[in-house]
Amino acid sequence: MKLRQLEMCLQKIQGFRSPKADIEQYMTPAPLAARLLHEAALAGDICEMKVVDLGCGTGMLSIGAALLGAEVTGIDIDEAALKIARKNAEAFGLDIEWIRMRIDETAKPLAADTAIMNPPFGAQKEHADRPFIDFALLTAPVCYGIFNKGSIPFLEAYTKNTAVITAKTAALLNIPKQFAFHTQENLEIPVEIVRLERIA
Length: 200
Hints:
GO terms for molecular function: methyltransferase activity. By secondary structure, this protein is of the alpha/beta class. It has one domain (25-198): Rossmann fold, CATH 3.40.50. Helices cover 30% and strands 26% of the residues. The chain contains six helices and seven strands, in the order H-H-E-H-E-H-E-E-H-E-H-E-E. It has helices spanning 3-10, 30-42, 60-67, 79-92, 130-139, 152-158; strands at 50-54, 71-76, 97-100, 114-117, 142-148, 163-176, 186-198. The protein has a seven-stranded mixed sheet, with helices on both faces. The protein is globular.
């Protein structure tokens, strides 16, 4: 599937009905999700692979990976989001496993080929992204994540004994006004799509 075709499919996915600020529930925009997944697919990390989507929300990355031929498991703590994700997957005729689980130091890693995620950036809770990084690298030898621009030095230091960054792509994350503390109708945040490969 071509990048533009994937993006058009993902535009149909329903987002959060009542997003929760404390767990940073922002829907990954379709263009950004499509770009991450397209790059992962070109690298051979999606098609016919077992893929786990961490903090899957309403299923944007999960559904995109499944459309590209992956066997997908989506994980999220919010049952309301998972309910929407199930309906979104059904609308596409996709069979995706959905698991309600909190991703923290007590979470038991799964076994997968690739982990994908748009983790919390830590705007509401400092270091909220760290359990996601840890879980991803315990779950799969390859991880793709969306991180704030300028996070590369942190990622390199944080994962220096567990993984290496093998690719990075500059992109933009569009956040529409959805919480009371938002002051702009739309905010574009520079981000980077990062591929981490676990050190054997």
